[in-house]
Amino acid sequence: MMREFEIERQFDIKIETIKPNKGVYYLKTNKGERCLKKISYGPQKLLFVYGAKEHLNKSGYDRVDKYFLNINGEPFALVNEDLYTLSEWIDGRECDFNNKEEVTKAAKNLAEMHLASRGYEPPENSKLKSDLDRWPHLIDKRSKALEKMNDMARKKRDKTEFDMIYMKALNFYKDLCKRAKNTLNTSEYDNICRESEELKIFCHHDYTYHNIIIDKNDEYNIIDFDYCKREIRVYDISNFMIKVLKRNNWDIEFAKGIIEGYNSIWPLEKREYRILLSFLIFPQRFWRLANRYYYNEVTWGVNTFIKKINEIIEEKDEYLNFIEKFKEEYKEEE
């Protein structure tokens, strides 16, 4: 149980109202509205996240949920061995991923954040979080995991409907893994990683609708930097693009809107499109869903898993059509 008086003492505030809100707490305090969040990682990682937000602010990008410091100048409270952060409560609504205009503005906003991230030096005693140079390894590892989960399904005496659907669909997604790997291996991925390291940029790593808050002034704010790390910017773009496209029947116009919006602020280089294509081909959602199912990562019922895997499989034709249109639009070949 969270001890409110400890939060008040360590952050030097008086809590007037506290309400749970989507995994965090909304606080009304004597110093204004705040967001209280229990975090699941240690203080060294938190210092990296804190430093990243401070860096953005100093670089002129201030539309983030800035952390408040405790009475000892640290960005957390320690209560019963749990870490809590206190940040600004940004009032507004979530970005509508079915609205092309909002999606394009969100892409501009992402480019502005990436530009401001350049030159980030993490604070002393923080843990450097980085996925630079890791994608060839991750594609191999996740491709092998798909095979391993297939073995797990095959060896079950009492197979579920999910197992049967997974085994039947597997070959298609294994083929996508090979295509993604070949595309990445024939790109300038290594050079782009090296240059990103030199630029010292970072990515948000979870740039999705509920982390993009549009305020009353129509400004686009970014919250929840928990997963931010050193990474090439194309990762954020591809991740954002997939989250938008799956909601819009893989409509190439939404992808073009994202790229146009992003390029209006910080244009992608020609060689980055090949890496983007590789990330779009890799079946990340299929792998993640299977991983959650076979390793009990979430407590969904089996029917939820069946519904989700069927949704991914049913969009196969639209997805393949999108990949071909993307290659044609941006003059890429596999």
UniProtKB/TrEMBL annotation:
Keywords: Capsid protein, Virion. GO terms for cellular component: endospore-forming forespore. It comes from Clostridium frigidicarnis. This is Spore coat protein, CotS family. The keyword DNA repair does not apply. Residues 24-264 form the Aminoglycoside phosphotransferase domain. InterPro entries: Aminoglycoside_PTrfase, CotS-like, Kinase-like_dom_sf, Spore_coat_CotS. It holds the Pfam family APH. It comes from the Bacteria. SUPFAM superfamilies: Protein kinase-like (PK-like). The keyword Ion transport does not apply.
